[in-house]
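S1.2 Input.
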Amino acid sequence: MWVSGRCYVYQEALEKAAAQLNVNEEHLELIQDDDVLDTWFSSALFPFAVHGWPSQTDDLDRFYPSTLLETGHDIIFFWVARMVMMGQKLTGRLPFKEVYLHSMVRDAHGRKMSKSLGNVIDPVDVIQGASLEDLHARLEGNLLDPAEKERSRRGQAADYPRGIPECGTDALRFTLCTYKAQGEDVNLDVNTVQTYRFFCNKIWNAALFTLNALPDNFEPSPMSEVLK
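S1.3 Output.
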């Protein structure tokens, strides 16, 4: 059985345990778990811990520090700043020299994707398609409480009443490229991806029609002549 106390407050954890077990506090003894790391703390160690630190391994000498980190702007202080501080404190070196910030992919309404909202879009679902029933079924495999699951189901039903249509890889890539030309954040709308799927299909059919109309011995003109 696990209980928690704020800032390692033993008495608070003890009171929680006694209340859950319905016993007096003097009959309980709590032992702090020694195998727990805060998510962002452990993530801050990643650039050098993955190479065997604190041991001075060959991989650490060869691969640390790196040169470039690619991430989203929303976790600069959660993760990037911590990696920088931990790297300087524990190794004496910066973990990387440059940080490339990519676009944030949000839902069609501009909201950050969240499991509790049920608005997370799996790229595989966009490529292969998924029914509304499939989307609902995946909610059963996570740790959301019943209220959040119900809210997620309502969100999925509102955004994808007929599920996510199969759009294919090319249409998804093309859509992301067009979104990137509009600004920093990508408000991914599955209906837009489906529209570009139809467009890609027209391009394919036009190319196929042209190739079938050309003679077998056709040779394209040199690019230098085409551009004259």
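S1.4 Remarks. The first helix runs from residue 10 to 21.
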